[in-house]
């Protein structure tokens, strides 16, 4: 495929969108890649990274190696992802702490549109297609209700976490960042990026590389042999993940970072949502959510002392997120 500078610039923009999505616990960069039309090329490119590349480099030189690698595509995409992920992770941390309803509302709209888009790619609906859709939905929903583990400060644990999370990051609907939250590694990695801790970032990246090279082969095989059922499973994944993205939450239990004990949130505050308590106290480090549940906007306001549910602006942002998919889809028809 003959591409020009403008085409690679668009690929970098898609990478920026992927990085921004992966920085948020609950949104998958794989979903963005799928919608923007680069998913299968990405999986095929990654799965082709093997020892044969070294043989090509040795026998035919750098130019042949780079072409076989699909290097221009990877460089453009990874540049966008890295720039966005490092910068947006800091912004996402601020938004999640200070404007949680607004950021989740935008991504909720984005995920709704994603479900419609991915489902449209399913060519034939058979009983097995519906079964895989249901399995995917239940599996993703189950992941969203798993209690988070305590935060692990072990730097080497980031290698294992990276290998597991990267598999989720390239699956539409499954959030790699949310997997990091469940594993108790999200805060450690977020702090590493904030403090530019090279050792921890390198360990995470190394684990991600190992997981990526392994898992991409499985995905490539599934798309080649079972495209329709794989798409149904991915549609289910995205649908099931909506529970995590729902903006209005009631906190059930929290982890005290100092004592290491998990306690009911009602023992900490009369408020119903940890994010509100943290913002009021200006303390985002003492307690971390272990278990939460989705509630209606009216219930959210009631359990938090009559605070505004920000329903109006939330709906506007949901619509904005929904429309964003159509922009990405348009880009996906070009330079993909």
Automatic annotation (TrEMBL):
Keywords in alphabetical order: Membrane, Transmembrane, Transmembrane helix
Organism: Aurantibacter aestuarii
InterPro entries assigned: VCA0040-like (IPR007163)
PANTHER family: INTEGRAL MEMBRANE PROTEIN, POLYPRENYL-PHOSPHATE TRANSPORTER
A Pfam family assignment: VCA0040-like
Domain of life: Bacteria
Protein name per its UniProtKB record: DUF368 domain-containing protein
Keyword check for Membrane: yes
Transmembrane portions of the chain: 73-95, 101-118, 130-150, 156-189, 201-223, 311-328
